[in-house]
């Protein structure tokens, strides 16, 4: 993801993302005085630099590269043994499609991999306008209806189910 995010065509996305990360980090620094050093954070405009300085060390990783490697889902995706719904878009500027076509992913039992041509399609509100239903939401509900036992679907929010 990070290599794609750092492409020149994605600079605006990365800049916007970094604005958000910087705001959150400043808030954390106010909430936990002395724990996070935010000096010079305003000069940090790459996600990799942010992850190297904050994400990795505060979560037990040696650095950004170690974090990216150890946190990568592709390292363990072939261990999934339950139905899985994977949603991405053909034109996602940050997520490359080839890994989703890897046999490790396509071999997940009873998995479904809908992939609209555009990210806009994935979040597009269906007509009529008064109906607030989006493509991705519909895919999730349909998948859950096929693979989640009815008692779990009807248990209600906050209900617990004994395993």
List the helices and strands and how they pair.
Elements: H1 2-5, H2 11-31, H3 47-58, H4 64-70, H5 103-106, H6 119-123, H7 135-147, H8 150-154
Task: Please explain how this structure is put together.
The chain has 163 residues and is mainly α. The protein is built from 8 helices and no strands. Helix 3 (47-58) crosses helix 4 (64-70). The chain is globular. Mean pLDDT is 82; it is low at 159-163.
Low-confidence sequence ranges: 159-163
Taking the alpha carbons of the first and last residues, their distance comes to: 35 Å
Strand content: under 5%
What is the helix/strand order?
HHHHHHHH
Mean pLDDT: 82
Shape from CA axes? globular
What's this entry about, in short?
The chain has helices at 2-5, 11-31, 47-58, 64-70, 103-106, 119-123, 135-147, 150-154. With 163 residues, the chain is mainly α. Helix 3 packs across helix 4.
Protein traits:
163 residues, mainly alpha, 8 helices, 44% helix, 0% strand, globular
